[in-house]
Amino acid sequence: xxxxxxxxxxxxxxxxxxxxxxxxxxxxxxxxxxxxxxxxxxxxxxxxxxxxxxxxxxxxxxxxxxxxxxxxxxxxxxxxxxxxxxxxxxxxxxxxxxxxxxxxxxxxxxxxxxxxxxxxxxxxxxxxxxxxxxxxxxxxxxxxxxxxxxxxxxxxxxxxxxxxxxxxxxxxxxxxxxxxxxxxxxxxxxxxxxxxxxxxxxxxxxxxxxxxxxxxxxxxxxxxxxxxxxxxxxxxxxxxxxxxxxxxxxxxxxxxxxxxxxxxxxxxxxxx
Length: 272
Hints:
By secondary structure, the chain is α+β, with helices and mostly antiparallel strands. A hairpin with a 5-residue loop joins strand 3 and strand 4 (about 135-140). It has 7 helices and 11 strands.
């Protein structure tokens, strides 16, 4: 018999022995080691004391938005979402709870997706109530419920201003939240990709409108916290601030802050 074959048999028998030992280790009951002094490591190993293997918990699995949640809305469960008692918004008379279609499908038509992100999607659609075009922001069920509500509450409480994206209503259907907003043609970021040479007078108008919107937000005791070209929207020559999901309310303004805001208004009051 060749040496190679003998070595292979020895190796096989050794590995089998090691496997048996490992099985014995896991099968034996938990032992308590009595406090005893050993002079050397060899003496300790000679006692053949093997501590019980601790129970290892399974790895925690993170879903990162891909958990097995019900992403489909529950039909017939649409309800108005409002944080103000003075809100005059209500569900459309076109909506019928006995149908399987969602509120969005029943009340809006000619729907076209304009964009999507981690929060969900944004559509433009015509409302059957007045045949006007609106932007509908849809938060999917995987998005954090608190952040959906924060944006609705901010837009509702800040109110109307010509240089802010107008909010009309919001509704909830199952785990999904929808916001009905004013439709604007494009964002400043999209416009700058089309037109690389923006004239100084136009930049002046953009700055004026954005500052007017910010001054109003500050007067309502809020800060925007997310001013960028993607959140500056263009609507027939007017510029509006949108996406108030990162806005936060401040404490009651002090007299110094009010004076500072009036000073900014006087400096930037460039239109009659």
